[in-house]
Structures are given as C-alpha cells and as structure tokens.
From TrEMBL:
Coiled coil: none
Protein name, entry field: NAD(P)-binding protein
Keywords: NADP, Oxidoreductase
Similarity comment text for this entry: Belongs to the short-chain dehydrogenases/reductases (SDR) family.
Xref: Pfam families: adh_short (PF00106)
CDD domains documented for this protein: SDR_c
TM segment ranges: none
Length: 260
C-alpha cells in the first residue's frame, strides 16, 4: 500500500536520529510537510540538511520540558504550513536500570519530565490545534502516535522511572482516544522492543548492575532487533487516513518479545 500524506503536516519529536529521523524521512517520502525537533541542535541541523532534499521540512531545536518550546512548535506549524495534522511523540531518555529503592529522585523527576510530562504537554497543544475552528477548510481532527516501549508492558527490562513513564503513556494514549474519538482525533501507541537508537547514551555514566542483570534475563530471549526504517512505515500508515479505524490501539512492535 502506497500511503499518501500530501495534504498533511506532521510534527516529530526527538527527530535528530534513530526512530525519529526514520519517521520524519518516511513522512517526507509519503508527501507530508514535516516539522522536526530535538534537544541536540548540531545533530538536528545535520538531519535537517539531509531531509530537506526530500521535501518541505522545518527544524526547531529545543528542550520539550520547556512550555515555550511546545508553543513555538505549534505556532511554526501554523505559520509555515497553516495547520498541524499529525503528532509523533518520540522524544525520550533512558534511565540506568535503578529500582525505586536505589533511584536518585532528581533523576526520577528528569525522566518523568522528558518521557511523560513533555509528551503530555505537546499532546495537549496538538489536540487544541486539531480542534481549532479556523483551520483551513474548517476541517478539524488529527492523529497522534506515541512511541512507547515493551517496558510499558513488562516490569523488569528497565529501571523504575523509565518503566513508569512508558506504562503511563499507555494511559495517556487511551484516555485521549476515548475523549476525542467523536471529534476526529485518533491516538495510538506503538510498543517497540530493542532498536538501534541513541537512547543508550544514558548508560555513559554507569548503570545499576542489579537492575541491568534482571533486564538482561529478558534480553536473552528477545527474538530480534526492530529495524527503525521498517517501523517508520508502520507509523506513517497508523497516522494516515487509511487507518481511520485505528484508535486507542496498543501496538506491539517487538518481534513477539512481549509475548514470551
């Protein structure tokens, strides 16, 4: 199926590399206009130069824990492309496998701010934009795709903070789907397994060895690593009008790892 998004504008967070970059690229191949954002400005600019050869793309560097950055993203969508149709909540950071008894609460606060509060804030702003009465042609509605994790279905593959945020994103996704289904807004979440992304940079400062040992027991039975380019195709489809029936879905994308 060749999904076309030629009339759509998409916002992808955490788009400087990994899955976010792959998703932005897939949206451009499908004909969409794309806004990319990431906290890593040098990496984002490199990605922007690469993606700008594929179609209309706009890059905004910033920390999504800042409310002003969210405002800037929505305003840019309106100014550059007159509207926003799709949000992909991809930005996130990994913890260091700390169970709740060992975690530094300031680190807990940072993980929740980036992985839960920030996507909640961007989702709120996107919903308000999707319902704006002065949108082109008066057409309201939109699609939200949140990147969760197998950690939102399992308890022992990461630390307490990361695991909590990924479980909570399931609740945010389904609550949004339930409240706005009759207003043309769809909200779904994918639950990937292991991927080649830069999220593992969190391990540079060390890990909780006990937490890591528990996680690796599950990693040993992981059937395979997820290809981000292939997963990006699913994201595009889930956000397209071809998937208009898909709402409130929790989509496991882990080669069956969660099923073991």
């Amino acid at each position: 199926m060749n999904t076309s998004l030629t009339t759509k504008t998409a916002l992808v967070t955490g788009a400087a590399g990994g899955l976010g970059k792959a998703v932005a690229k897939a949206f451009l191949h499908a004909g969409a206009s794309v806004i990319i954002t990431d906290i890593n400005e040098p990496m984002l600019q490199t990605t922007y130069k690469e993606l700008s050869e594929l179609g209309p793309v706009h890059a905004i560097a910033g920390d999504l824990t800042s409310p002003q950055v969210t405002t800037n993203l929505i305003e840019t969508a309106r100014e550059q492309y007159s509207k926003l149709d799709i949000l992909v909540n991809n930005a996130g950071i990994m913890d260091r496998f700390d169970p709740i008894g060992d975690i530094d609460m300031s680190f807990w606060d940072r993980i929740l701010a980036v992985n839960l509060t920030a996507p909640a804030r961007v989702t709120r702003a996107a919903v308000q934009e999707f319902l704006r009465e002065s949108r082109p042609d008066g057409r309201t509605g939109g699609a939200i795709l949140t990147v969760g994790s197998i950690n939102g279905l399992r308890g022992g593959i990461a630390g307490a903070a990361y695991t909590t945020t990924k479980h909570a994103l399931v609740g945010l996704t389904r609550n949004t789907a339930a409240h706005y289904a009759r207003k043309g807004i769809r909200s779904n979440i994918i639950m990937p397994g292991l991927m080649e992304t830069n999220i593992r940079t969190a391990y540079a400062n060390g890990v909780n060895e006990g937490g890591k040992a528990l996680a690796w027991k599950s990693v040993d039975v992981n059937p395979g690593q997820v290809d981000v380019d292939e997963l990006a195709k699913l994201v595009v489809f889930a956000c397209s009008d071809d998937a208009g029936y898909l709402n409130g879905a929790i989509i496991s994308t882990d080669h069956g790892w969660q099923a073991i």
